[in-house]
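Re: beginner question about structure tokens

> Can someone show what the tokenized structure looks like for a real chain? I only ever see the sequence side.

Sure, here's an example I had lying around. Input first:
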Amino acid sequence: MSRAVGVLGGAFNPPHIGHLLLAQEASAALRLDELILVPTGVAPHKRIDPEPGPELRLAMTAAAVAGAPGLRVSDVEVGREGPSFAYRTLELLADELPGSELTFVMGADVASGLDRWKRPDRVLELARVAIAARPGFDLGMVDETLVGLGAAAPVARIEMPPVGISSTLIRERVAAGRPVRWMVPGPVERLIAERGLYGGVA
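And the corresponding structure tokens:
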């Protein structure tokens, strides 16, 4: 019997409770055996700024999910050179996990631009797609984009509790000397403080 494996990519700069809630809800809704978080190595579509370094983002993501059943982190992007194209990441994970059924988990904001990615057809060959709603994004339009690229209809949905937290907000609070406890997992908070990330004081 094949294993159901979710793939959730992102900068994770830093990872926060919104990422973990998405991982939790995706795992439950899609009945995943495992969900893999994949920190971006070299982002092909936008600059990661400020960039603490891919290895530090990987370390924070690993710290965020340490001990969480069904979640793990992969260095498949951080560990290779060149831009981190999603289709190549999925190819490598498919090779690593033969016989697994991959599901690519995305926010509606990310999914709406999939047609501008490199080889989106290959992404959809390798994995089914599951979409989490985002404020301001019409899921019907997102469906049209994905089905137009060859995704199976209807596209899987992930219901998310509303969370008004973003990596940008975390970075701004750290830079301003404001607390981020309860917004990020404790080990991530400690790493940010120890390394003096985002303008904080080490």
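Each token stands for a local structural state, so reading them left to right follows the chain. The CA atoms of residues 49 and 197 lie 12 Å apart.
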